[in-house]
Amino acid sequence: MVKFLVQRIIGMAVTMFFVSIMVFIIMELPPGDYAERWAFRKFSGTGAQITEADLDNIRANFGLDRPAPERYFKWISGIVLHGDFGEAFAFQTSVNNVIGQKIWLTLAILFSTLIVTYLVAIPVGIYAAIRRGSAEDYALTVFSYLGFALPNFLLALVLLYISITVFDSSVGGLFSPEYADAPWSTAKALDLLSHLIIPSIILAWSATAFQLQTVRATMLDELNNLSVTAARARGVPEWKLLLKYPARLAINPVVSTMSFDANRIFSELPIVALVLGLPELGELLLKSYLDLDMFVAGAILLILTFMIVFMNFLSDIFLAILDPRVKLIEG
Amino acid sequence: MAKTKEMTNNNLLEVKDLKISFKTDEGIITAVDGIKFSVKRGQTLGIVGESGSGKSVSTWSIMRLLPKNSIIDKKSSIKFQQKSGKVVEITKFKSNSRELREIRGGEVALIFQEPMSSFSPVYTIGNQIMEAVLQHRDVTKEEAQEIAIDMLDRVGISNPAQRFKQYPFELSGGMRQRAMIAVALSMNPSLLIADEPTTSLDVTIQAQILELMNELQEELGMSIIFITHNLGVIAQVADEIEVMYLGKILERGTTNDIIHEPQHPYTQALLKAIPRLDTIGERLTAISGDIPSPLSRPIGCPFYTRCEKVMPGICDVKMPEPTQLSDTHTVYCFLYEEKNV
């Protein structure tokens, strides 16, 4: 197990190294740079003439004049050694300050969505498979496909409307007004949790629909497995054998696609966040691209990809724990 | 439900009028059509037949292990004498009832054709044996582990304490089948159903497993129903043999009756299809034609479509009544019914 863990961690580090190079290339790709954007903002309308020399000066100020490899190593070593993601030019502060709180709230949304997804998809998928062909099975299938079919922003609007008209509560934002600027406390954490429910449901719905069908299909395969009949022939009570044999294996495909779910949630989050007024990274990513504020964009890209790579790592570990065959193959 | 009624002839199991059908998309398929058989204490009954003859279905019904789309006809009766002496009617049990769970494993155990897939790959061999022991015996976990390791040792698995901790995929096919037998026997059943236990093994391992089963039967005194399509295998283990075809029993007798004096044309044809050392050089005779689809079962004797001695107008009209050739030998064929008349 230790060897397996070390292998996976090294694998993750190598992946992240290549990811960081790709992120840096993406940061370099848009035409122009922040120096031009800064000059445009500052001097447009003033009638001032900006020469190429002026731009070079500005570049030197921001450290943008150095060759790309040097800037890459400065950038990546700051992140790895000091946890410093560089300077957010547009905000005139560090990237860490700009994304600091937002990253935690984004992660809170991600994990609450994943929890909702798995809490619903796994037991319901197992149940649907056991009751295959029943009215409940069909109802659940239809209901879960609704999640696939309906766009998230529509779901967000509908739930927003319902929560305001029926429950007379606002779902916008992640905090109630009275807690928005308050220091962290238990009450504030609970307030955050209650605001996480709606976005989690919206984001979890399509992921749940997908995973529910996966669990159901795997469970159906496993139910026909001879080892299930063998356990039944040993007199093991039905519910106990269903949980011990087919259900345990039905979880495997879900566990191994955790990073897909994370990816899906990250890509759907910005639209939902926009409708619900959630402070998260997606919108900031878009804005920083428009401003050519590349260290902000790079930091967000890097963190999101790291999360997905990390989820992949986690699912490898979980899978190795769940299925003894995995370790044998991996050596 | 005659719960206290004694069994006749020292029988452990008495099956009568057993009829089993399956609801499928194409219609109702009858897999077992009104068969009758019994198993005596300490004896081995062999059931021989081709695929689809209903040999597995008829025996799995003793443990009520058939899939949900199966229907056991209301007139069917499966009487079994429990260790306590009580005679129970298995067809009357509700599915997943406590009584049924006690029968499964505790009274009747089953070993399967495929030792690979009959173990779950994600639990150790030990875990799955202990599950069986704990389900049926009033012992602590430590005692169950001891019983399990002891049983692995008894079925000839070397280094049993080590194997106990291993996963099924870490064992060879022969070892897995031994482990499967260990699981079955650790529950101390009085009837062991062996559903083609040696079919997926190579010939030398097959011989070892057969020998092991004979030994264990002598030691533990249980009855065995041995299902196979291989008459050569069954001759080595069975006391009595019944020959099944398309859901019907065609001939029944002692192993000697069936192997040396087969009367039904089907049994005779089956025996001719076995390669023999004393007839090397001769061509084997295959039974012509294919087994009919269970969806279009022939009326009358199910074998008449392929039978060399078919009598048109007789065999294709109704199923022949049993003809008692001796105390032990019964055949279902008009050839003999006529002689008796």
What does this structure look like?
The complex is a heterodimer of chains A (331) and B (341). Chain A is mostly helical and 331 residues long. Chain A folds into 2 domains: 2-95, no CATH class; 105-291 and 315-330, MetI-like fold (Orthogonal Bundle). Chain A has helices at residues 2-28, 34-43, 52-62, 68-82, 95-130, 135-149, 152-165, 177-180, 186-223, 226-233, 238-250, 252-256, 258-276, 281-290, 294-322, 324-330; strands spanning 87-88, 93-94. Chain A has a two-stranded antiparallel sheet. In chain A, helix 2 packs across helix 3, helix 7 crosses helix 13 and helix 9 (186-223) crosses helix 13 (258-276). Helices cover 30% and strands 22% of the residues of chain B. Chain B has 11 helices and 13 strands. Chain B is globular, with a radius of gyration of 21 Å.
List keywords for this structure.
heterodimer; A: 331 residues; mainly alpha; MetI-like fold; two-stranded antiparallel ribbon; globular; B: 341 residues; alpha/beta; 8-stranded mixed sheet; 5-stranded antiparallel sheet; 11 helices; 13 strands
* Radius of gyration of chain B, in angstroms, nearest whole number: 21 Å
The strand line-up of the biggest sheet of chain A is 1-2
Unreliable stretches of chain B (pLDDT < 50, length at least 5) are none
Query: Which band does the percent of strand residues of chain B land in?
Result: 15-25%
| Dominant shape of chain A | globular
Structural class of chain B: alpha/beta
Strand residues, percent of chain A: under 5%
What topology, given as strand order, has the largest sheet of chain B? Answer: 7-8-9-3-10-11-13-12
Tally of extended strands of chain A? 2
Overall SS class of chain A: mainly alpha
Low-confidence stretches of chain A: none
What is the residue-mean pLDDT of chain A, rounded to a whole number?
A: 84
Oligomer status = heterodimer
Overall strand count of chain B:
13
How much helix, percentage-wise, in residues of chain A?
A: over 70%
Largest sheet of chain A: 2 strands, antiparallel
Measured on Cα atoms, how large is the radius of gyration of chain A? Answer: 24 Å
Helix percent of chain B reads 25-40%
